[in-house]
Amino acid sequence: MKKWRLLYCTCFFAVCLCPFVGMLLNQEGETEAENRRLAEFPAIRTEEGDINREWLSEAGEYFQDHFAFRSKMVTANALVQGKLLGVSTASGVIQGEDGWLYYKDSLNDYLGTELLPERSLFNIAHTLGIMQRNLEQRGIDFVFAVAPNKNSLYGEHMPYYDQCKVTDENNLKRLKPYLEQEGVNYTDLYECFQEQTEVLYHSRDSHWNNKGAALASDRILSALEKEHISYEGEPYEVREDFVGDLDKMLYPEALTLEEEVYYEHAPEFAYVEEVESNFAPRISTVSPEKEGSLVMYRDSFGNTLLPFMAEAYGKAYFSRGVPYQLSDADTYQADAVVVERAERFLPEMAAAPPVLEASPVIWEKEIAEKSDNGTSWITMKPQGVIMQITGRILPEYLKTDSEIYLRINGASIYEAFPMSIETGDNVDSGGFCLYVGVEKLQEGPDFIEIMVRNDHTMEIISKQQVEEEMNK
Q1: Best CA proximity match to 202, nearest among 194, 213, 187
Q2: Beta-carbon-side half-sphere exposure of residue 268 (alpha carbons within 13 Å)
Q3: Of 83, 165, 409, 458, most Cβ neighbours within 10 A?
Q4: Contact 251, 79 (CB under 8 A)
Q5: Beta-carbon neighbour count of residue 93 at 10 Å?
Q6: CB neighbour class for 241 (10 Å; exposed up to 12, middle 13-18, buried from 19)
Q7: 372 CB neighbour count, 10 Å cutoff
Q8: How far, in Å, CA of 147 to CA of 82, rounded?
Q9: CA gap 165, 130 in Å, rounded
């Protein structure tokens, strides 16, 4: 009996030690199959030279991400949970019906929960309106497009969540009236995809397929009135060779190949620099037979949009950087600027206004003045040759569509971008952000008046002496 107990204990500890021994034998490379960033091995000392007190917990996270045969074990567990119980083991993935997978970040929008405040919707639309008016004054066309969440279009494969729905309203539907109010040149891709009879998204990926990308690019380029090749009706072949991003996250060692569309006429353009994939943060392209220059700010939906957009312009620059650096329009002598954003990222748009140096505005009417202080804080931070001025206005001083202006040192008045900011667990929509050239400021503290405009009235709600923060 003792021998059997000894054998049992030996086998038990041998199995427990396999992942660790496998790491020593360089088996950890298998974890590369997972579509996420894994923990790095921790340093014993911090950058300041002190002992890293978090070393043990960080080492535990490293082992959890890198132990040998991890991806196989992760996949086996996911298959049991997903195939038998219909449950996803990946925190960012929803296991849908009929083999469909959804990105969990889109769930709140789908359920109609934690929707943006009306003021945040205004912040997005008004910021886009300021961008468009600035670009149009420089002779540059502008288009804004939203890539719909997969479950917004194809929610019939979502699991039991339907019974938890609060409302059919979502951020995108509620944003549209504000875009119309601001006169934003908006291309409604949601409506466009709804009109299609076939499914144009991958079932195991969070994005549209190549045919969907061709459709979206056609609508965007048409909105820009840019001559281009329409791929509607172009011959194509379907290959079963596509691996979805959600599939990689959930089943790293048991991937399911999906169908993808490949047009016989591949978009004709060339990359200026060597590019590993279209997910690179910055990409420049040329199409020598075409004219014009494009700057496009995009996210992962732009990976498949890029070839179709690049083909239409002699030069194009694609950026995933946030906040948008609108000086790119000058750098690349753009004829057109496009902002493409995934529906699930709309809340981020409310909190990340673009970097754009403001020009003075003319206000000839009387400016009223309140005696109390309507701001809770204001800061100035140098950003190269421009200064970033940010702050927060107390809620009682703002209506949903109030505009925010700053007068600096009693001279020029500038309109600030409205901005949503996080305050603990809540979102405060009363923030603002202004970029002005450092030459507009004086040495030492600057005298800044914060003003709120409602319709045809302007009111000073705060006066402050503000000194720039020193870079640490």
Answers
A1: 213
A2: 9
A3: 458
A4: yes
A5: 24
A6: exposed
A7: 8
A8: 28
A9: 35
Helix, strand, coil shares, percent, the chain, to 5: 35, 25, 40
Cα separation, 386 vs 87, whole angstroms: 50
By DSSP bridging, strand 282-286 and strand 293-297 are unpaired
DSSP structural state of residue 175: H
pTM of the model: 0.83
Peptide bond into 177 cis (omega under 30): no
C-alpha 368/C-alpha 375 separation (Å) is 16
Both tokens assigned to 218:
């056609």
**How far is 206 from 92, CA to CA, in rounded Å?**
11
Domains in the chain: ranges and CATH = 19-101 (no CATH), 114-351 (no CATH), 367-466 (2.60.40.10)
Task: Say how far apart CA 317 and CA 329 lie, in whole Å.
Answer: 9
> Using an 8 Å Cβ cutoff, are 226 and 213 in contact?
no
Q: Taking the chain, what is the end-to-end CA distance rounded to the nearest angstrom?
A: 68
pLDDT tens sequence for the chain (472 residues)? 566 666 656 665 555 555 555 555 554 444 444 445 667 767 776 666 667 776 667 666 665 555 554 555 444 444 444 454 444 445 789 999 998 999 999 999 999 998 999 999 999 999 999 999 999 999 999 999 999 999 999 999 998 877 788 898 999 999 999 999 999 999 999 999 999 999 999 999 999 999 999 999 999 999 999 999 999 999 999 999 999 999 998 888 888 999 999 999 999 999 999 999 999 999 999 999 999 999 999 999 999 999 999 999 999 999 999 999 999 999 999 999 999 999 999 999 999 999 999 999 999 889 998 877 888 899 999 988 999 999 999 999 999 999 999 999 999 999 999 999 977 667 788 999 999 999 989 888 899 999 999 988 999 999 999 988 754 3
Counted residue by residue, the chain has a size of: 472
Read off the amino acid at residue 133.
R
Beta bridge partners of 395: none
Checking DSSP bridges between strand 386-393 and strand 426-437, what pairing results, if any? antiparallel
Output the CA torsion 186→207→201→82 (10° steps): -140
Distance of CA 90 to the CA centre of its chain: 21
Strands 446-454 vs 457-466: parallel, antiparallel or unpaired: antiparallel
**Per-residue tokens: 378:** 């204001």
Instruction: Look up tokens 């990340």; give the residue.
Output: 352
Could you tell me if 250 and 93 are in contact, meaning their C-beta atoms sit under 8 angstroms apart?
A: yes
Please check whether residue 406 is in contact with residue 389, taking contact to mean a CB–CB distance below 8 angstroms: yes
The two three-digit tokens of residue 223, written as one number:
């909105």
According to DSSP, the residues that pair with 453 across neighbouring strands are 403, 458
